[in-house]
Hints:
The complex is a heterodimer of chains A (267) and B (260).
Chain A: H1 7-31, H2 35-55, H3 59-79, H4 84-105, H5 113-118, H6 126-155, H7 157-162, H8 167-185, H9 194-206, H10 212-237, H11 241-266
Helix pairs in contact in A: 1-6, 1-8, 1-9, 1-10, 2-3, 2-4, 2-8, 2-9, 3-8, 6-8, 9-10, 9-11, 10-11
Chain B: E1 10-19, E2 22-32, E3 37-41, H1 48-56, E4 63-68, E5 74-77, H2 91-98, H3 103-113, H4 128-141, E6 146-150, H5 158-175, E7 178-183, H6 186-189, E8 195-199, E9 203-207, H7 209-214, H8 216-222, H9 227-237
Parallel strand pairs in B: 3-7, 3-8, 5-6, 6-7
Antiparallel strand pairs in B: 1-2, 1-4, 8-9
Amino acid sequence: MTFLDDFLVRAALAGVGVVLIAGPLGCFVVWRRMAYFGEATAHASLLGVTLALALEVAIWPAVVAVAALMAVTVALLSARGHAADTILGVLAHGALAAGLVAIGFVSGVRVDLTGYLFGDIFAVSQADLAVIWGGATLGVSALAFVWRSLVNSTINEELAAAEGGNPERDRLVLTLALAVLIAVAIKVVGVLLITAMLIIPAASARIVARTPEGMALAAIGVGLVAVASGLWSSWEFDTPGGPSIALAATAVFALANVARLAFRRAA
Amino acid sequence: MTVNLPLPLLQARGVAVRKGGRDILQAIDFAISPGEIVTIVGPNGSGKTTFLRALIGALKPSSGRVIRRPKLRIGYMPQRLAIDRNMPLTVDRFLSLGDAKGATSRQQALETAGIPQLAGNQMTGLSGGELQRALLARAILREPDLLVLDEPTQGLDQPGEAAFYRLIADLREQTGMAVLMVSHDLHVVMSASDRVICLNGHICCEGAPTQVSAAPEYRALFGHGTDGALALYRHEHDHSHDECGHDHAHPHHHDTGATP
């Protein structure tokens, strides 16, 4: 296990773990237009962090619990026909503000707020790695298990139901997988950039993919490239890790679009 | 004439749906038998789509129940399919997501639906008519006992519409599947339907197409705008001038003694 002693190796493994689950999950976030939903859930996780600090328990179970609670609340509210966009905006920013205020009340702890907001990938411990890879394995297995059904309910819920599927169960699996991803990613890219890791690789993958499965795999590929180049630039230019990864993903997105336009013009 | 009553594929018993304090559907009794083509007509907002959703299991009725024959295979064609432009999906993958049959069966389904050349095309790039056919291909690939169509010819021109209903009638002949469809326009589906149900929150009247079109309940809902087409139709096909207002002449409605 000696190579895990190297913080750079731990950082890379942490990034890969996050990307494995964020790639396929991000595709569903894009297809179902859940970007704001992901944002609200991610922002609420800061309250989970505060709760964990106040109770002096491990961060990740509290984050999973609060994120899942938020996700289910939002899902129920939008199912009742509240104006989804507005209510999500209120919840997303309300939750972030509440988290920022609440964390100020936690006494006796010097809280590294920046670390939670933007991640601290170079401080990932072996215990963190275990949580990240455990969560990623769980999330990816759950998605793989319901994949066909989940894609069908994403295409059309009535069609899925008529063919014997269960759209409500699929939605629940997706919601819980999102909560797990947030707990897993908070240390790597932080509360504010989790949505970036969901959306940007998926959006880049869209350009080359012809099937849903192809897009999920390509999103993982884009994520891996982003982690590698983000960590490299962070090492080389001493930039913050999480934002560098998100920026690298954005660069891939931009390059892919430019390449597509050039290709189209040539064709 | 004696009729042997086969076990219905699908039954609704006292199905009611309330939404937001409003009764969308009230006390609907319904059954469809193997091989039957039933059309539900009704004005906009009459609960047609809600009723279909309850029948296919996409919506839980507020009261009453829906009984399916065990192992019933349903092929469903939704009214619209709004796939997000960000989802890459070939027609072929769309079919295989519905049923895991081999590539040959998928190509055959596309041929039957009349779009054999589109297997590799993206779903989001299809025209309205092509999309309808892709949906039909997916539905028939499942070799359903019951094909459910929600306003299947929206966005088709009149010849396209006629051709579509001919195709459905042919498929029923070949496979013996039952067909349940929703339409807002009775006269275009008349010749293809065995039985018509006129819905407006409840079942206003039902029976053979000509009976329904002559029923005062139907005329109260739809007026007499389609008289020309109906007259033409009657001239050619009508054998019965029964009124639909009293009890109807089709057997399934009286099938109260049957067990599920």
